Amino acid sequence: MNTILLTTQQMVWQIFDEICQIPRPSGKETQIMNYLREFALKHGFLTKTDKAGNIVMIRPGEAPAIALQAHTDMVCEKRNETTHDFEQDAIQTYTEDGWMKAKGTTLGADNGIGMAMALAAMVNYQGNRQLEGLFTVEEETGLTGAAAVEAGFITANTLLNLDSEDENELIVGCAGGCETVGYWKVEETNIPEGMFAIEVSIKGLLGGHSGSDIHLPRANANQILGQFLQQTAQKYPFYLCRIAGGGLHNAIAREANALFVVPYADREHIRIDWNIYIAEQEDKWLVHEPKMRMDLSSKPKQEKAFTPVLTEQIINALCHCKHGVINMSKTIEGVVETSTNLASIKRVDDNLIITTSQRSSFEDQLNALAFETYTLLTECGATAGIHGAYPAWEPKFDTPLLKTAQDAYQQVLGRMPEVKIIHAGLECGLFSKAMPSLSIISFGPTLLGVHSPDERLNIASTNVMSHYLMHLLEKLS
Description:
Alpha-Beta Plaits; elongated; six-stranded mixed beta sheet; nine-stranded antiparallel beta sheet; 2 domains; 30% strand; alpha+beta
């Protein structure tokens, strides 16, 4: 391996370690943006910032420029037992069996490793083309930064998106998506005497990315919880006091819990029902969810609960909102065409909020599924809305960029890549809409468990894909 490639790989890991020290939740990327500006100043690069807070870092050179693109925010998920403040604390990384992982939290390699690869490449690039590092904000909460990028913010005619998660693939298209959200005003009532408080929880599910993992056999904690609450409310006098489940709109719910009360005389019947329900769920899911844990515990006396009407509305919404694959592609084997994710339920001040997300390769299917979900939520008493829509990235299989990328891949990895369309959402669709002449591909090192505390980055894959990026830049120069 030549000195430039070795230096680049070493720099990728050094930069990624520095990125892991910087808190960067979506919408709170100030520290990481300051880091990027300091990096540019240190290496003699220029920068400019748009109204959304996106940064372009420019290594001057000859036209036409090549853009290297990554987003700066990360999904902030942690295990219940983990103490971590994503707005203050560094990510605690470690390596195990050839993978880099984080202690009890998401790693943030989505898309921190893309940033690190782009920055290292800009420093070590030996060609004469201008390089433009495009670093966007708030990708994980609705592609907000990418949606604000206007024509002219970059001058490049080629964009390499570094936000893909399988070294075997070159991505040329992706699904569009949106969020459909229901809001209920919290109304409470006094709990009568003689009631017994119980908390149930579902923990330890795999979760994962609601785009790339939605087709896998994975349980949704919100569904499991909702179904038990429904059967309990149908059998006993029942008051729901608290409920929470899931996290971000683009993550499959790993954990959920609820606090409710039933008559004191029925407390043992609930325990029996719960044990039966555990057996049913384990029979269905344990082979796929080996760390699934379902707990029940007694709690102190409660004074207030949601009204019976609100309780019924919330449980009906949880039980009737769809989750999972709606359609597989009829033309491309193995590709999800349309899906929906029952992402979260949470209380925010005086509102209970259920968030779902929909994805599709086709705008009409996306709109129909979002409207179906919107209608269901309103029928369950919610004030509903459809938010954060972003377009699909239409695939092009015959571009000179793709041919060059395939040739470079074969030269570095000794095999041809899979050219794919993915169900996850990428910022590329928004860039393509704003700049129709822009030629785009997406790639990256192998990442597993994205959007969950099981997120892990393959070390060897990162090294080889850093090599690939440098080689591709050389061939494009």
